[in-house]
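User: structure tokens for this one?
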Amino acid sequence: MPFLVMGLLNNAVPFSLLFLGQTAIGAGLASILNATTPVFTVVVASLLTRQETLKGNRIAGVVLGVAGVAIMLWSSLSGLASDPLWAQLCCLGAAISYACAATFARRFKSLPPQVSATGQLIGSSTLMLPVALLTAGNWSIADPSLTAWFNVLALGVLATALAYLIYFQILAEAGATNASLVTLLVPASALFFGWLILGENLGVTQLGGFAVLLAGLVVLDGRILKRRRAPAV
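Assistant:
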């Protein structure tokens, strides 16, 4: 049962929401919204479940993170942007689900990462199999191109299986908030490849919101601030 819950929170729900959201918005914006995961993780782990201590830098990081999200969504809320609000909220929903998963995953701390990752993926596959069968229609395995199958293989092996082995190792050693900070790496690579391969561009408001969010994540992490305060030897 715990692996089914983990598969639901860390795979089935966020993957579905991200794919749905990206039918209407670009990869760059989706990745920026996904980078709010550490902010929501602090809220869930510190305020709702009391797993981690809520420190001053984390409070400041959450405030800046929420401000960054508000800036990114402002143009959509005011009706000025072409990016649909529902699609952006789907990506934020995925981030919230990831945050809940990071907190729930603490119960797997004593298990080897291979066991946790395998159990989670089996759980999510079990949950999604009925959905796939019900929505497949007249789909045939020969329909997708060879390129599409290579993309599926890369997502499954590198971006999912290998990534979760590393994720559970970090989670056991560094905690939920630090594990969720890996999402800092996603926007930079997604923005670059979205621009290089897909020709995507972001507006000034979205980039400004991302800058505020990034500042919030740096404050939330706290390590740079500690180094600045450390006395010179």
